[in-house]
Design a protein that fits this description.
Order of helices and strands: HHHHHEEEEEE
CATH class of the largest domain: Mainly Beta
Shape: elongated
Helix content: 55-70%
Number of domains: 3
Strand content: 5-15%
């Protein structure tokens, strides 16, 4: 609205005794602009875009949550299965070893039955030696070996000194004079130290 028109309207209001004014020539450019309407529509579009992004993010989050729950259930099942297998393995680990000893037990039982009716000491001794050798061979095949002690230098990693024996021979000092109880290794790991008497 131009400056002249505003002045004319003001004059009309002052001269009108009833102060009744008829507004007839308001144009879009006077009070509202098209830019304001454009700004509103752009804001609505931006809100719609943000709403779409939020919906997509919520949907993706729900999908990832389901995947996570599925993976957790799978991992829990795997853990239970592994613990069960480990428990079974520990429970039956010695099965094959013990199974291999059963034929030797059978030999002992046959030997004991033979002794009842035999007075031949040499035959009994021979039978015992055969069983003993069979047992030693079986242990060796499973990695168990006796520690050679008598005459060897005392080694705290292999031997346990239970006595100190005075010796007149200087060369015997610090050496194993006698083996009271044999020691054994399993795959080169000591599973029982040899109990020995050491020269001093």
């Amino acid at each position: 609205m131009s400056k002249d028109k505003h002045e004319q309207k003001a004059q009309t209001i002052e001269n009108d005794p009833n102060n009744e004014v008829e507004i007839t020539d308001v144009t879009p450019g006077d009070e509202f602009t098209e830019n304001g309407a454009d700004a509103l529509s752009e804001e609505d579009a931006e809100n719609e875009a943000l709403k779409d992004q939020l919906d997509k993010a919520l949907s993706a989050n729900e999908s990832m949550k389901k995947d996570y729950m599925f993976l957790m259930a799978e991992f829990d099942n795997f853990k239970k299965r592994t613990l069960k297998e480990k428990s079974e393995l520990l429970k039956n680990a010695a099965e094959s070893t013990l199974k291999g000893l059963l034929p030797i037990v059978d030999d002992f039982e046959r030997g004991l039955d033979a002794i009842k009716d035999s007075s031949d000491v040499s035959a009994v001794k021979e039978g015992m030696e055969l069983i003993y050798n069979k047992l030693i061979k079986y242990l060796a095949t499973n990695g168990v070996k006796a520690i050679e002690s008598t005459g060897a230098e005392f080694d705290a990693d292999l031997h346990e000194a239970i006595a100190m024996v005075p010796t007149p021979d200087e060369s015997q000092r610090g050496k194993v004079i006698d083996t009271v109880e044999k020691g054994y290794t399993l795959n080169d790991k000591v599973i029982r130290h040899a109990k020995v008497a050491v020269g001093q």
